[in-house]
């Protein structure tokens, strides 16, 4: 994808989704648009998960594009609420979807201007890699095992292999809790973001993901390699990856 200039920065993106080796359908959907990037991991029988994730990506993208110059974090939360409501209406709670990603927003705070808003519902993840620093998870999984880790009842190593590690506690379109967690971050040149479904994070060790993102400069090549590694590790779930690079440009502020 060609660079999309954002003020004094440019964004380069690589992305891919794959059914994997076991699942009959790919119930993941990707949103890669001007200023907003997200992974939606659907769940539910009879293709309900596929419908839920696709609706989420479409509604989120359309809502963001309506007023691309004035989107705030509050408006982004409202669009996610809209997606939740429309998915429930369409499939009656028989399916749902995670969503994780980042969007350029402007909350109007003096001196802050355009920022990234990282958002998350469920156990898809958004990470960041700053220059000279390892890959760091920004989002918090909404899952049963994550709650046990935070209570001190499981170590992270135990959580990674726990039989209920894929049971989530929050999703759009189903369940009682759908509110998105959000984090605001400055737009900084030299940063690399990874957005992925648990088909990647559940198959490929974090150190391996970090190594790939450290040594492969092209975001599309990096995304393709991560998908390949997840498939080689078993490909037991659908796999979706977005790799996003923020690059400084010579454009004046």
From TrEMBL:
One of its GO terms (molecular function) is protein serine/threonine phosphatase activity. Gene3D superfamilies: PPM-type phosphatase domain (3.60.40.10). Keywords: Hydrolase. Residues 12-246 form the PPM-type phosphatase domain. CDD domains: PP2Cc. Pfam families: PP2C. The keyword Plastid does not apply. Its EC number is 3.1.3.16. The keyword RNA-binding does not apply. This is Protein phosphatase.
